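Methods: example folding runs. The two proteins below were folded one after another, and each record is reproduced exactly as written to the output file, sequence line first and C-alpha cell line second.
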Amino acid sequence: MSKTIRIGCASAFWGDTNTAAAQLVQKGNIHYLVFDYLAEITMSILAAKRMRDANDGYATDFVEHVMAPLLPELQRRGIKVIANAGGVNPLACKAALEAVCAKAGVAMTIGVVLGDDLLPRRKEFADAVGQDDFSATAREGAPQPGTFVSMNAYLGAIPVAKALAAGADIVITGRCVDSAVTLAPLMHEFGWGETDYDLLAAGSIAGHIIECGAQCTGGNFTDWELVKDGYADMGFPIVECAADGSFVVTKPEGTGGLVSVHTVLEQMLYEIGDPRAYLLPDVSCDFTQVKLEQAGPDQVRVTGGKGQAPTPFYKVSATYPYGLRCCATFMIGGIDAARKGRASATGIVEKVRRQLIELKLGDFTGIDIHCLGAEESYGPHARPNAAATREVLVKIVAQHPNPKALKIFAREIAQAATGMAPGFTGYFAAGRPEPHMIPRLFSTLVRKDRVSIEVSVGEQRFAVAVPLQGGFIAPSSVAGHSRESGNPVPQSAHLVPALDSRLRGNDEVVTVPLIRLALARSGDKGDHANIGVIARKAEYLPWIKAALAPEAVRDYFAHILAGGTRGRVERWDLPGTMSLNFLLHHALGGGGAGSLRTDPQGKYFSQMLLDYPVPVPRDLL
C-alpha cells in the first residue's frame, strides 16, 4: 500500500490546551485526531465526580470545549476522532457527545470501548491485588480492594480498531494505554494483524512519541532557548505513517516549536523502563535499535522498532483514599531567608503537633517542608551560596487521617507573620488552605482472560476477543544491549580501560557539566523515575557512560532514593540512538498524588543530572 495516514494528537493530559484540536484540524491535513486525557490519578478524580453524579466521571472539556465547536469541520473534512476521554464513565461521555452532535445537526457514529472498569468486580481480584506483579509472592501492605475508588485495566488497540471497522466516526474509550489511540487506526487502515509484532511495535512507538502532545515538538526540551519564541503557539504533533511501519513526525506548518531528532528522541525516552521490553497489551516493543533522521525542516523519520508477543496480563491501576493532607505556602525574604523559612515552618509544625497530642488526635502521619529557591531539591549538590538566597517560598504539606487536625494546622499558619521570623509575607493572598483527600495509586497485573471487553457502535454492541496466550520472552543481557544495576563497585571501575588509560595519559582533562555533552528528560513510572540521556555526539557517549555508571547515579540521587546509597538504579543502552535510560527505583516518595514532595513525578530529575560533572579530554570538546 502506498498511502500514508496522518494522525494528530491534541492532548497530553486532562487540562492541556483546548486550542490544539482546532490547530490540527484546520492546519494539519490529518485523517485522525486523537486525544490522551488519562493519568493514573485522573482516574480517582473522575471516580469522585461519578460518585457525586452518576452522569459524570469523564473529561467534560472534550465534549463541551473541544468537540462541540469542531463537529461541523470534522464532518466536512472526514476526520475521525479517538479519545480516552471516557474516563470511568464512557457511556455518559457518549451520551453527552450525542447530545452535542444533535444540537449541531451533525450525524456522526459514536463508538465506545467498555470493559476496562473493574471496580464493580474488585473483590474478585483480591488474589491479584495480594500478589507482586508476575510473581506469586505475597505483596506486603497491599490495600483492601473494598477501599478502591477506581480500578481500571489498561486495554489495548484491538477493540478500538474493531470499533472503527464497525463504522465508528468517533471512538471513546476509558482507560487504555496511551499509545493505543494511535496504533488502532493504523491497524484498521493497513490491515495489520494481531501477530504482526514489528508493525504493532512501530505503531506503538509512533503513539508513544505523540501521546504527550507538544513534548515532542519542543515542549519540555533541554535546549529550550531554540524554541522559546514559539511558546505562545506551540505546534502539536502529527505522525505520517506508512504501511511498512515507518513514520515521520511533524507539526502544522507555521506553528511554534521544533521537530528535530533531539526533540523527538527526548520524548521517545520519556517515562519508559527497560527499552528492550516496553510492555503493552498488544505487543512488547524494543526501542534499542530505533533510528531517527532529520527528513526535512520539522520532519523526523523514525524506523527500526522491533516487537514480540505481549504478556498474558493487563496492567491494572487502582486508586484508594490514603488519609488527608493540607498544603500551605508563604514567602519569606531578607538575609538568611531559607533558614528563617525553615525555622518558621518547623515551629508551626511543632506548635500544631503539641495541640494534636493534647487533643488526643495523634501525630501527623507525614510532613514535608521545602524552601523553594534554596536548591533544597539538590540535597548535598546544592550550590554553596544557595542557602544564602534572600527570597524563598516555603511549602509545608501536612498529612493526617483526621480533618479536624488539618484544620488546626491551617489556622496556625498566619500567626507566624507576627510570632516568628521577620520577612514573612505572601500567605494571605492564597487564603487559609483546606484539607484534601490523598488518592494513592496501586498497580498490579490481571490475566487477560479475566477481563471482558465490549464495543458499542451506534445500535450495535458486541464482544471483542483479544489474544490471551501471551508469549513474551524477557530479554537477556548481551553486549551492547545490556542492563546494569547500581551495585557498589570501586570508583576506578567507572571508567572502561581505554578511557581510563587516556585520562591517565598526557591529554589535558577538563570537567564539564553533562549538559555540554548530552540532553536529558525525566518522568515517573509510579513510585519510580526514569531519566533518558542522549549524547550530543557519538564521540561523547563513552565518556558519558563512564561517568554515569549506575552506582554513580545512585549516589548522586541518594538523598531522594528510598534506601539512600543502598537504593537501586538500573541503566540500559539504546545503541540506535546514542542514548541511555536510567530507572531510579522508589525515588518519588510514593509517587503521583500520594507523594508529599514538591516534584512527585520526577520532572526535575533530568535537570539536576544535567549539572553532573563529567571529565573529558579538552580536545574532545
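Second run, written to the same file directly after the first:
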Amino acid sequence: MTTRCQRIPFFSIIFVLFLMAFNLFANGEFPLPPQLEDNVHFWIKIYSQYSKSEVVIHDADHINIIYEVINLDDYYPRDVSLRRKWHKVEQVKKEYRKILQNLAKRRQPIDPDQLGEKERRVYDLWANVVEQQKFAKAVRNIRGQKGLREQFLSGLERSGKYMQKMKQIFRQYDLPEELCFLPHVESSFYYKAYSKMGAAGLWQFTRSTGRLYVKINYSLDERFDPIIATDAAARLLRNNFLQLGHWPLAITAYNHGLAGMKKASKRLHTTDMGEIVEKYRSRSFGFASKNFYAEFLAAKEIAENYQRYFGYVNFEKPIEFKEFKLRHYVTLNSMAKEFKIDKELLVALNPAFRRPIIRSQRRIPRGYGIRLPSDKNYDPGALYAELAETEKFNSQIRDRYYKVQRGDNLSDIAMRYGTSVLRIMELNDLPSPHLIRAGQLIEMPVGNTVAKTVKKSKESPKLLLAEANVVASQKRPSLPLAESGTASATVDPPPAPPSTPLLAVLPEHETPQNGDFARSYGPEPLADFFQDEEAETVNADSAASWGFKVSFDEPKSNWITVQPEETLGHFAEWAGISAQTIRDLNGLDYGHEIHAGQRLELSFERIPPAEFHRRRLEYHRSIQEDFFSNYKISGTIRYSVKSGDNVWILTKRTFDIPYWLLGRYNPNHDLLKLFPHDEIVVPVVQPRSGNDDDNGHAD
C-alpha cells in the first residue's frame, strides 16, 4: 500500500505556497515555528484532503511519518459503526508495532538490504531521524487519525451564520479576528456539540471554566449560545494573552490551561511555542495540547483560502434577531402565545434555553435578553405589556426531588403527593412507569398539594426539600430577598464574576481547559479492549437505564464531601457565601485546589442545608441529563487495574468517560484508592442517534 501524501503531491505545493505567504504577510501575531511546519501540513491534509472513511496511521511525535492510509469503506459497509470499523485500524497498528519491534531488536547499524519489503519501507520512513532507540519509541507512538474533510466543510458552511457577529465581538475587545477560526478546531461550528467529558457548544467550554463567564444552571446553559459563548471566549483568550504575552501560548492555553502554559514557559525559560512542543515533557501535555496551535494555523489557512481547498462553499445566511430584556420571570409558552411566534423558532433563536424552560417547567429568568424574529414589524415592549399579569412572576419555579425507596412504585408515589403517574413520567423522561430503581431521584411536580398519608409497612419517605419551602406558583409573589441584598432561594444564581479564581476538582495543569470535540482523533481508547470479545450487554437494572442518582445526601452538619465536577466556586454559590469564607473555614490558601473525596466545612447561615442540597442536586442533574441526552451505554467491560493507573488516567485517557459515570458503575469501589489487579466495571459509551458516530456530530 502507498501513503496518501505520495499519491497527491500538489498538496505539498499548496503548503509551500502557504508558507511563503505566511512568511511574507504574517504580522507576527500567529508565527509558524519551524518545529511545527510538519504538524500544520499534516492538519491541513486532515481537514481538507482525507475523508471521514479514511484513517491515517502515523507517528505521534514525528507527525510527518505516515505508515499507511486505509479506507474503512474498503473493509466494512457504510452503515457499520466507527467503533466496529476501528478494529481494522487496530489490526494495522498492531502490524506496524511488530515491524518496529523487529527493527528495534536488530543489531545496529541495520543493513537495509536484509529487510523485507514492508520493513524496508518503514526503515526508510525513519531514515532522516537521528535519535537513539527511535524504533523502540515509535512502537508506543503509533496512532490513527481519521479524516475530517466533510466535517470541516460543514463547519465552513455553518460558520456563515455566526462569523459576522463573532468578528464584531472580537473587534470590540481589540483582539485579532482570526481567533474566530478556533471553533473549526473545537466544534466545527456545531453549537450543539457536547463531549463525553461535558465540554459544550461552539467553543467547547467545560462547566468549571464556562461558569466564570456565562450562566450555567438548570434553566440556562449559555455555552450553547454561539453569540454569548463567543463573548466569553474573547474574554478568556484576552486574559490568556495578557498573562502569557504571546498568541501561540494563549491559544494553546485555551486547550491546556493557563497554569499549564505558564508552567511550561517557566520551566524552559522560553515563549517559543516550537521549542515548548519540542522539549516540554509533562504527563498532561500530550498530543492534543502539542497540536492545538498547529491545528489553529491549519484551520486559519483553510478558512481564509477555502476556495483553494473546497471550491464553492454554501455559507449559511448570517443570523438576525431582535432582543428584548424581560422584566419578569415568564414561561416560554406564554411568550410564544402572546407574541404569536412559533415556539420552535423561539427555541432556535435562544439556544441557551435548557429543556426545563423549553417545556415551561421553569420560567425564563427576569433580565434575560430573549431573542425574537427580526423579519416582523412589531414592538416587543408593547406586546409584552399586553401579557396577562397572571403570567408574570418575580421568582423562579423551584424543583423538588423524591428519593425512590425499595418497594416504591409510581402509582403510590403519585397518590401520596397528589399528582399523576403521567406527570411524574413527563418530568423525568421515564419511558415506562416500571423503570424506577431504589436510590433514584425523581422530580416531583410543584403545587399546593401536601403529601397524603399512605399506610405502608415501612416509614413513609419524604421529599428532599421540605414542603414548606416549596412555594406553589402564585400570582405576583413578593419580591425575592435578593432584591434587598440578601441571598434568595428563588432566583437563578448569577454566574461567578471573571475575577473569581477557578479551583477545580482536578488541578488545572492536569486536564485540558476545554473539550476535544472536533479533532475526532478516533473512537475512544476502549477500542483496544474489543479485539477478542464484545462488551457485555447492559441489562435493564444497570446504571444504563437513565435515572438521576447521586451518592450524597442532604448535609446533616456543616461538613460535606466534594463530588466530581464540583469546585469551590460552586459551593460558595450554593451556600450564598464567598469562596474566601470557605478558604478561611478550611485553612486553604488562595489558589489551593480541592479534589473529589475531600471533606470541606461550609457555613449554612445564609442558605439552609435543604436549599443548598436542592441547588447541588439541580447542578448534578443537569450534568447527567446532558450526558444521557447525547450518549448511551451499550455495554460494559471488566478492567483489571494496572500499575500506574489512577482514576484520572482511567477516565480522561484510557476510557474517556466522566469520573461520575465510572463511579456509578462501581459503587463499592473507592476510585481514589485503586490498586493493581483491582477489577472495575467500565461502561461502553456510544453517541445516541443524531450524533454521527463517524464525525462526532450530526451535520
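Comment on the second run: The first strand starts at residue 54 and ends at 59.
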